[in-house]
Design a protein that fits this description.
Number of strands: 0
Strand content: under 5%
Largest sheet: none
Helix content: over 70%
Number of domains: 1
Structural class: mainly alpha
Number of helices: 2
Radius of gyration: 13 Å
Length: 55
Amino acid sequence: MTGLNTILIVVGLFLAGGVYSFAKQGMPKGVIVLLSLASVMCLLAGILRIQGLWD
């Protein structure tokens, strides 16, 4: 399932870019926090799947 790992990491990085963009534009803090949590969850899930710690 390396395709799913790649998708999770790419989506996580995309969301991280959105966090940076929203913070730069001065969006509400709640949106930035939710987007950053989603980014961390996607990146962590992709990394854990690569390591084989989560199936």
